[in-house]
Amino acid sequence: MKPKIVKSEDEWRRELTPEQYAVCRQKGTEPAFSGRYWDHHESGIYRCAACGEPLFSSETKFDSGTGWPSFAQPTGPARVATAEDRTLGMRRTEAMCANCGAHLGHVFDDGPVPTGQRYCINSVSLDFAPKKE
Ligand code: FE
What we know:
Blueprint: H1 9-15, H2 18-25, E1 44-48, E2 54-57, E3 61-62, E4 70-71, E5 80-85, E6 92-97, E7 103-108, E8 118-121, E9 126-130
Antiparallel strand pairs: 1-2, 1-9, 3-4, 4-8, 5-6, 6-7, 7-8
Fe (iii) ion binds at residues 48, 50-51, 53, 97, 99-100, 102.
C-alpha cells in the first residue's frame, strides 16, 4: 500500500506518544482489556490517532469479548488497507490506516452478520470524536 501521508520515522516519533509509536509505527499490540475503547459505548467516530482520518463508526462497533475495540467494517472500503501478516507463527490480515500507513490491528472473518468481519483494533491507534447533537 502507498499511504498519502509519508513522514520519516523521526517525525512520527516526535508527533506520537511512545505508546502510539509502538503500535502505529512498530506494529505493537496493547494488552487486552487495557485500552480506553474496548468497553466504550458512546456514539461517534473513531479517528486514526496518527493522522485524524475517520476510520470507524460507533454504529458498527460490537462487543467481541476480546478486550479490544471491534468493528464490523470501516467507514469506507478505501479507508482501511489490509496486508498479509505472517509474524508470530500465525497467518493473519493486518489492518492499516490507508491515509498514513499506521498499524491499527487485524481483521478476522468471524465477525457478525452481515459483513462477517471483525476489525480487531488497538485503542491506542484510535482517537474518539463524539457525535455532535
Ligand atoms: Fe492514519
